[in-house]
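Protocol step 6 of 9: fold each sequence in the batch and record its structure tokens directly after the sequence line. For illustration, a two-sequence batch is reproduced in full.

Sequence one:
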Amino acid sequence: MSKGPGLFADIGKKAKDLLTRDYNSDQKFSVSTYSDAGVALTSTAVKKGGLLAGDVATLYKYKNTTFDVKVDTESNISATLTFTDLLPSTKTVASIKLPDHNSGKLEFQYFHDHATFTTAAALNQSPAIDVTATIGTPTIAFGAEAGYDTTSGSFTKYTAGISVTKPDSYASIILGDKGDSIRASYVHHLDLLKKSAAVGEITRRFSSNENTFTVGGSFAVDHLTVVKAKLNNHGKLGALVQHEVIPKSVLTISSEFDTKALDKNPRFGLAIALKP
């Protein structure tokens, strides 16, 4: 693949990951194993609201082809088949969820040094079609996204965004929800290895005249431990500690509570991921 501006989905992703990834209020345990034949098997158990659920995922890689299958405790099956460079500088992704036979989806991605393009269509009689396009460089990128419902003959979404990437910082602005919301974010890396960072994000919804401002960050205490925290203007505070117990095996303890309603019970999450 060429090194271009990236996909439209990448715009704003760095800030989103810092503010949402690994924050959870469930008890989660996962074990992953790998074989020399390119097969990865991951078993996950999640306790949420007093209920226990889980899934088993198998990932198989062979040359430029990846096959991913996931089965959950309710016998739902999700399968994804990915072909890289089936045509030069392209990626093709086919997915389906069973027993919902109408959930099939086919996506085509094209990468160029100064542009990327994706189109995705549902595999049913009245498919919904999503199209994205991004132009620019790895430093600055402009992109747009549109969704079209062939049944109603109307657009389901249209979004536009811009991102600027520098060695020690990243900024993005996204106009979404059919022009009803705008989200601006900024990430500043605090070290050369980019293990510690500060992030700020502001979202405005024009229809409700509502603003949400969130600040947060990630700090590497040492090479094994990371601390993350976030706080928004509505008083929602979240924090987590992530520690590598043994190589590639990570323990994550997270919590979230409302600083404006301290009488409410905070939410706690625990996740353990074991990898060979």
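Sequence two, same batch, same settings:
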Amino acid sequence: MRNIALIVGYDGTDYSGFQCQPHGNTIQDHLEQAIFVLSGERVKLHGSGRTDAGVHATGQVANFHTTSSIPAERWALALNARLPNDIVIHSAFSVPDHFHARRGAIRKTYCYTINCNRIPNLFQRRYEFHHPLPLDFQAMQQGLVYLLGEHDFTSFTSPLSKKASHVRTILDARLELEPASVNVLTESNLYHTSEWDEQHYPGMQRGVIRLYVSGNGFLYNMVRIIAGTLIQVGERKRKPEEVATILEAKDRSKAGPTAVPHGLTLCEVEYEQF
């Protein structure tokens, strides 16, 4: 019996999340079926964590035990030939028998992408949230700082969360801004977007904002609620320091909306040495 780990990427648009659901059509369902077609074995795949319906991954980690003699290095290509085009195995390798993709994870990094250019990017529409108005990038940075460290994140998780504790540690959090590269005329064709924005939204920015959050674990909808709250800060509907007040309240109704799932990607999962 061997333990095989997989690094998996997927476009989650057409799936009901990673973990198996009663109605099927999950990433796990397709992976387990591909393993069965390849090896003839019905295996139980363990993912590093759930991703919701519509959420993507570039670095999801999963593992399974197998009696198959297929060399570890051949699993990736062999499974890719049996998977839908929107699921890909980046690599496959043998790990110690005790390795468990979820229990052994010590750090996960997510990215939430917000396009606040006036016109959406046709080719990135599945992977970023389009916000047609500029945002106050500096205010969002200031609000994000309050989330660093260990906190009770009850305000930033769904009331449906079944976790016994909502205490988690945000190890790193940052925002990156890719400024708008061109000036696009407004519908009136009288002003460049930058001139119009400066008049109506002084001190706010256009471009693509990427929110990176790394932590020792995440609650149901946690990153999406953080993103939704920071967007409100960027809209100047909330002050940056309100993020601290929201944390202290331990009340989901005090935080912002749950941002749409397609802007979220699981980027990386880290482990101690095997």
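Proceed to step 7 once all outputs are recorded. Observation for sequence two: The mean pLDDT is 93.
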